[in-house]
Design brief:
Elements (H helix, E strand, L loop, with lengths): L1 E3 L2 E3 L10 H10 L31 H19 L1 E3 L12 E5 L9 H17 L4 E5 L11 H9 L10 H7 L7 E5 L8 H11 L2 E5 L6 E2 L3 E3 L2 E7 L7 E10 L5 E11 L5 E6 L3 H4 L2 E6 L8 E3 L7 E6 L6 H4 L3 H9 L3 E5 L2 H5 L5 E5 L6 H12 L3 E5 L2 H11 L12 E7 L10 E2 L19 E2 L1 E5 L9 E4 L5 E8 L2 E6 L14 H11 L12 H4 L3 E8 L5 E2 L8 E2 L15 E5 L12 E4 L19 E4 L6 E2 L1 H22 L5 H24 L14 E3 L4 H21 L8 E3 L11 E5 L8 H12 L3 E5 L12 H11 L12 H5 L1
Parallel strand pairs: 4-5, 4-6, 6-7, 7-32, 16-17, 16-18, 18-19, 19-26, 34-35, 34-36, 36-37
Antiparallel strand pairs: 1-2, 2-3, 3-33, 8-10, 9-10, 10-13, 11-12, 11-14, 14-15, 20-23, 21-22, 24-25, 25-26, 27-28, 27-29, 27-30, 30-31
């Protein structure tokens, strides 16, 4: 094959025949010498007579051009022209090194990558050459095998949910023996690929096959101002682009369900885009993972580790009637500090316990009734978290109970009668500051401000196990925060009040952070990720892993635990896929120790970068580029048409083409051209054809990605109807609500992405469609209340235009209760 850029010829030697075209032109234009002209008187008798057969004195130029074009088309057609030809293997005889990145970014177009690799293996087999199949995500060095064995190994490959280790490949490639290299890469930078490219180019011919579109990444979600946000990453700062991100939460049946979809809009030149979910706190607390809707992968999905959960919390605090005093009350400080971490329910103990809280916060709670005390102990043992604050009422309850000799089961330590007053007009001592936090407790990573002081506190009775229950203390060693694990739950006591009367702790930002760390102890909520020192000597096992497509799945049977040192980076690495990992060693029950950790490919602040430019001399191809197209048959058909036209033109110039013959010639040309025209016309969508069978429709939004998803969804619905019912729908059809006939489709699907672009006339036509008995399915792209990208005002406008009735609850005998 010989190529000229994007054009190549299978038999280029035939093109040498084009040299004869000038000679052919000269021969056809050649005219014999003109005869001598003699006057003959009898010619006058022949005037007025016409000869049916006439012959031109010379060939017209346009007929000569037609004949030359016919000959050229025949020659070029037999030469086998091919547009966008694929590169072929060179003439070497060494093994072919076939490299596949095989990382997370290869998952969206893995089938195309396998097809390209399979074609290269087949070419090597036809040339009798061995293949070094090298998936970089698996590590190790390849060994040369035959084409059949390489094809078998290729069929068994799957993309790995981590990035390829190109740096390690650079160290190994120097020891390999090969002739040329084909590298099917993902287009992203994962390390020292520049050194690998340079080494490969120096060893022989290098062909780089890259993707048509680079994969996108996703960072873990975070809560900001009550809304969940996540960043979508791209490697190239192109034009405007929209990526759809779906949020999945726990379902009542134990699985997961999609609770919302949000668009992330890339501005021109930007590498990150933010997806924002305005969901109710109840739904945010159920979020398990986020994933890209289109082209999902392990890098385009993240697992939530529980930091999103705003726990249902009951707050019991003394009631303050004065409006001014309310701003300095313990309930005010606790309400502000707990807002980022919880869904608050305030009231008495009985009232808040009816809401089944995960956390119970008690501000200066006195003695409990014996029945309430037993119920609360049971609640804590079953996994409840009780956070208590000291105060006058608690101090009085201690005094009342002191004489009974029975310790309070809802206190982590035994308290002494009376409090400790530090500072004041009648005290000799000064207020105390905070001392170092317990290195094994949950506050160990918090910074201690110098301005926090303590003036009054309740004291703990000395005991042998007191030191193990102290999480925070004053600079003189007096306990400030103590905790005790009871069954599956915890009881935590702050030895000061929740207001600023006994200390300045509630006035500092440390108060909010301390409560956040305490809330992390509640079941289902993840503690702060352990640092490198805390991971030393620990073992972790995968409880849930992300597959190459970003979907969660259980870990493989018999998977060995992972050493904590391997999880120091807190992200997926070769051999350690993204997933949820549980503490598997004996130290998992230590106070404040993290027992659950989410490992993802990306973290907040990460970026993506494109692969380094290819070295000079390397052939560059696109995996999803234009397919090779052969034009030999078309040129030969064109030559036949030209020859047929030449015959007709010759007969016409000779006067031998009668009217019936002309009609037959025109009919023959029409028959030859008509199939192409009919085929071109048949490629469009004819709405009238929808009446021949049941056809599902969807409203086009103008966004190609959304329209493709809509078409795929309706096609899947048609397949389900065909499998489960007697309805056999045809292919779905996209319609324009403002112009296309809508009554031809029994069902119309309308996705609302980024608001509606339909004007009043289009909405009026949709209203008429509903009045006529049509079924309109409006998808707000959000399984919860509210609308993703669609404002409530816009939704009310749609409801008014469509004359939608008010919603009403369905009874237990409704068809929906029988279908789901």
């Amino acid at each position: 094959m010989t190529g000229l850029g994007a054009l190549a010829f299978l038999n280029p030697w035939i093109l040498a025949g084009l040299i004869v075209l000038p000679i052919l032109w000269w021969l056809l234009r050649a005219i014999p010498p003109s005869p001598k002209v003699e006057a003959f008187a009898g010619v006058r008798l022949l005037l007025g007579l016409e000869d049916d057969e006439r012959q031109s004195d010379k060939t017209p130029w346009w007929l000569l051009l037609m004949r030359c074009l016919a000959v050229a088309a025949i020659l070029i057609g037999f030469a086998g022209p091919v547009l966008n030809p694929s590169e072929r293997l060179g003439a070497g005889d060494g093994p072919v090194l076939l490299i596949m990145d095989q990382g997370w970014a290869s998952a969206p177009d893995w089938a195309a990558r396998q097809a390209a690799a399979g074609g290269a293996i087949d070419e090597a087999g036809q040339a009798g050459r061995q293949v070094l199949l090298w998936p970089l995500a698996q590590g190790g060095a390849p060994v040369p095998v035959g084409a059949a064995e390489a094809r078998r190994r290729l069929d068994g490959l799957q993309p790995a949910p981590w990035q390829p280790d190109r740096a390690a490949a650079s160290d190994v490639v120097g020891d390999l023996q090969f002739g040329e290299t084909i590298w099917i890469h993902d287009g992203l930078s994962h390390g020292d690929e520049g050194a690998l490219q340079k080494t490969l180019a120096e060893r022989g011919p290098l062909r780089l096959i890259g993707p048509e579109a680079l994969a996108l990444g996703l960072t873990p979600p975070k809560l900001e101002e009550g809304r969940m946000r996540a960043d979508v990453l791209r490697a190239e700062s192109g034009g405007e682009e929209v990526a759809l991100v779906a949020a999945y939460g726990e379902s009542e049946a134990g699985g997961e369900r999609r609770v919302g979809v949000s668009p992330a809009r890339f501005e021109a030149g930007e590498l990150t885009a933010e997806a924002e979910f305005d969901l109710p706190p109840e739904l945010i607390g159920t979020i398990t993972r986020l994933s890209l809707v289109e082209a999902p992968s392990a890098g385009g999905a993240v697992l939530a580790d529980g930091s999103l959960r705003r726990l249902p919390t009951g707050l019991v605090a003394p009631v303050v009637e004065d409006a001014v005093a309310t701003l300095t009350s313990s309930s005010h400080y606790l309400r502000e500090a707990l807002e980022p971490w919880s869904i608050l329910r305030e009231g008495s103990v009985d009232e808040v316990m009816e809401t089944d809280p995960a956390v119970l916060v008690l501000a200066d709670q006195g003695a409990f009734d014996p029945g309430h005390e037993a119920d609360l102990v049971t609640w804590v043992e079953e996994g409840g978290l009780m956070v208590r604050f000291a105060g006058p009422r608690l101090a009085a309850a201690i005094g009342e109970r002191f004489g009974t000799g029975q310790p309070d089961p809802l206190l982590p330590v035994t308290l002494r009668r009376g409090g400790r007053v530090l500072g004041g007009a009648l005290a000799w001592s000064k207020p105390r500051t905070l001392g170092p936090f317990n290195p094994d407790g949950p506050f160990r990573r918090l910074a201690i401000p110098e301005e926090v002081d303590v003036r009054t506190q309740v004291l703990a009775e000395p005991a042998p196990d007191l030191a193990g229950r102290v999480w925070a203390a004053l600079d003189d060693g007096t306990p400030l925060v103590t905790a005790k694990k009871i069954g599956q739950g915890w009881v935590v006591l702050f030895h000061v009040t929740a207001d600023a009367e006994w200390s300045s702790l509630p006035l500092s930002g440390l108060f909010v952070e301390m409560l956040g760390q305490v809330m992390a102890l509640s079941p289902g909520r993840a503690a702060a990720p352990p640092d490198a020192e805390a991971l030393l000597g620990t073992l972790w096992r995968a409880d849930l892993v992300l597959g190459p497509d970003g979907a969660p799945r259980p870990p493989s049977v018999g998977a060995e635990p992972v050493e904590g040192e391997a999880l120091t980076e807190g992200r997926a690495a070769p051999g350690i896929g993204p997933g949820l990992y549980l503490r598997a060693d004996a130290g998992a029950d230590a106070a404040g120790a993290a027992t659950r950790m989410a490992i993802n490919l990306f973290r907040e602040g990460d970026t993506l970068a494109p692969m380094e430019p290819a070295p000079l001399g390397a052939a560059i191809e696109t995996l999803g580029g234009a397919e090779a197209q052969r034009y030999g048959a078309w040129l030969l058909t064109f030559a036949v048409l030209l020859l047929l036209a030449d015959v007709i033109a010759t007969l016409w110039l000779a006067g031998r083409l009668s009217m019936p013959a002309r009609a037959a010639a025109m009919l023959a040309l029409a028959v030859l051209v008509a199939p192409d025209q009919a085929l071109a016309q048949g490629q469009g969508q004819d709405p009238v054809a929808a009446t021949a069978e049941t056809t599902l429709g969807y409203i086009r939004t103008g966004n190609p990605r959304v329209d493709d998803v809509s078409e795929a969804a309706m096609r899947g619905l048609g397949m389900a109807l065909n499998a489960r019912t007697s309805v056999e729908p045809g292919p779905p059809v996209g319609v324009v609500a403002a112009s296309d006939p809508l009554h031809l489709y029994p069902v119309l699907y309308w996705p609302l992405i980024g608001g509606t672009s339909l004007d009043d006339s289009a909405l009026e036509r949709l209203g008429e469609y509903l009045t006529g008995g049509g079924l309109l399915l409006i998808d707000t792209q959000n399984g919860a209340s509210g609308f993703s990208g669609t404002s409530a005002v816009e939704m009310r406008r749609i409801a008014r235009a469509l004359n939608l009735p008010a919603l009403a609850p369905v009874d237990g005998d409704h068809v929906l209760t029988r279908a789901f």
